[in-house]
Design goal:
- 33% of the residues are buried.
- This protein has 377 residues and is of the alpha/beta class.
- The chain has 15 helices and ten strands.
- A hairpin with a 3-residue loop joins strand 9 and strand 10.
- Helix 12 runs antiparallel to helix 13 and helix 13 packs across helix 14.
- Helices cover 43% and strands 10% of the residues.
């Protein structure tokens, strides 16, 4: 075998690749690329003839993540949907991030849509109450009977156009109070992931766009197809509960007067029964005066306030500990696990076990190395 005079070693030795190893790397890369392309083709084939046409309308300040949800979810339904994107003027759209997107179509394509999706966009007090006239003009191109879907702040545009008047709707829980002030003729529901009126659907923030798109597939083509799409997108086909389980409920600061010291005292003893007369005695008030002052200061009855604080503590324990549900119930003052389940279901829409699965902080144990593969990692 000839010696490489420049390397003073045999090709393939001393870390020098042979011709075969050099050619093997590109070959392996091509093989992986071909496999990835084949997988992507199987997941996102060309639309079938007569496929349901979905147009995603990108407004100025659109959120890139939610903009892509309809393409990703509906586009994974074996060609049952043709998903197109459009802007209100056919021009590139500035997102809320440091990038600009160029939709493939102008507003004229809205007239051909079977479903129109309004993804969320950055809003200001002015734009929320009175959207850009071009956005409203774009909506006017939509044919009667076209299904409308909003994600998060997309509901503000539908409401401003009068398309939600007299209807129940939702948006991100943090904006529902503001939404209700602007659009009092809309019945806003902060506790659900989405609301379906058949012709108009509204959904909450971010990942609820996945929920509502999977719901569209389920409604249009059945659970089997929706489950298949969910597996391809590596998301649950259905999430228990609503967005109530994600709402932050910070404690109001207790004052040094009135019932504030008694509230502080009660928070240190949530595992105890804490009847009204005991709370009133601690506050040195009659039960009638205490109940009245308590409601004036917190907006709640003492019993309702205690239940909220017990649930708050229970949620923390479910997220941060491995305590059995029965023990959690005991630690926060519920008489039984059944009582905890009933109260948590009423507040968050889920059972304690489902809440723990959603929020429990977990990760691979030491030495537990897991490989991930597939589109998106």
């Amino acid at each position: 075998m000839p010696i490489d005079p420049a390397a003073d070693c045999v090709p393939g030795a001393c870390g020098t690749p042979t011709a075969r190893s050099v050619s093997a790397a590109p070959s392996r890369a091509r093989e992986l690329a071909d496999r990835a392309a084949e997988l992507d083709y199987r997941m996102r084939p060309d639309p079938r003839p007569g496929a349901h046409k979905v147009v995603v309308l990108a407004l100025d300040g659109v959120y890139p993540f939610e903009l892509g949800i309809p393409h990703r979810v509906l586009g994974s339904a074996d060609g049952r949907y043709e998903v197109l994107s459009a802007s209100v003027d056919g021009q590139p759209v500035r997102t809320d991030s440091d990038l600009t997107v160029t939709p493939g179509h102008g507003p004229e394509v809205l007239a051909e849509a079977d479903t129109v999706v309004i993804p969320p966009y950055a809003i200001s007090p002015a734009s929320a109450a009175a959207p850009d006239p071009q956005s409203l003009a774009a909506l006017s191109r939509i044919r009667p009977g076209t299904r409308l879907v909003s994600i998060c702040t997309g509901a503000f545009l539908l409401a401003a156009a009068g398309l939600l008047d007299g209807r129940r709707a939702t948006t991100h829980w943090a904006l529902t109070g503001y939404f209700q002030e602007l659009f009092p003729r809309v019945e806003i529901d902060a506790g659900v992931l989405f609301v379906d009126h058949g012709d108009v659907l509204t959904s909450a923030g971010a990942a609820s766009g996945v929920d509502v798109c999977l719901h569209l597939v389920r409604q249009d083509h059945g659970s089997e197809v929706a489950n298949q799409v969910a597996r391809r997108c590596v998301v649950p086909p259905y999430r228990d509960g609503g967005q109530a389980q994600y709402i932050e409920r910070p404690l109001p600061p207790a004052s040094g007067t009135g019932t504030g010291p008694t509230r502080d005292w009660a928070l240190q003893r949530l595992e105890l029964p804490l009847p009204l007369d005991e709370l009133a005695t601690h506050a040195a008030m009659s039960t009638r005066t205490f109940a009245r002052r308590f409601r004036e200061e917190t907006g709640l009855s003492p019993g309702r306030w205690l239940t909220q604080q017990r649930l708050r503590r229970a949620r923390h324990l479910l997220e941060s500990s491995d305590l059995p549900v029965e023990r959690v119930a005991h630690e926060v003052g519920f008489a039984t696990a059944t009582s905890l389940r009933r109260h948590l279901a009423a507040e968050a829409g889920v059972a304690p076990s489902a809440y723990r699965r959603t929020f429990r902080a977990s990760g691979p144990a030491a030495g537990d190395v897991r490989e991930t593969s597939g589109p998106g990692g």
